[in-house]
Amino acid sequence: MSVIERIQSEVDNHPIVLFMKGTAQFPMCGFSSRAVQALKSAGADPVHTVNVLEDPEVRANLPRYSNWPTFPQLFINGELIGGCDITMELFDSGELARIVSETQAQ
């Protein structure tokens, strides 16, 4: 299975997935930590995460797959939502909680 197929599999098999540096329990950067906390506060708990620091192939190829250069990267229902800033904007507006609730109800 190619790295792109592995990324696609993660996105396809988990309604909410956060590609991040570190894990939900031990984030390795502030942006990843803030994104995890926003998701948990919005009701996505547990959060399915992929630690890009443990998989150099995913870390190298995810920006090409998503056309998004930085980490973390949040996907919901197979669609790239964005990084930490967009996740925080959605959280602050209440939209993230609505999206998470709708996704988990499916």
TrEMBL record:
Q: Which UniProt keywords apply?
A: 2Fe-2S, Iron, Iron-sulfur, Metal-binding, Redox-active center
What is the superkingdom listed in this entry's lineage? Bacteria
Which residues are listed for [2Fe-2S] cluster binding in this entry? 29
Pfam families, sorted: Glutaredoxin (PF00462)
- What's one GO MF term for it? metal ion binding
Q: Which InterPro entries match?
A: Glutaredoxin, GRX_PICOT-like, Monothiol_GRX, Monothiol_GRX-rel, Thioredoxin-like_sf
- Classification via PROSITE patterns: GLUTAREDOXIN_2 (PS51354)
Q: Where does the chain bind glutathione?
A: 21, 59, 71, 84-85
Domain Glutaredoxin stretches: 16-81
Family statement drawn from the similarity comment of this UniProt entry: Belongs to the glutaredoxin family. Monothiol subfamily.
Q: What is this protein called?
A: Glutaredoxin
Give the organism the record lists: Lysobacter spongiicola DSM 21749
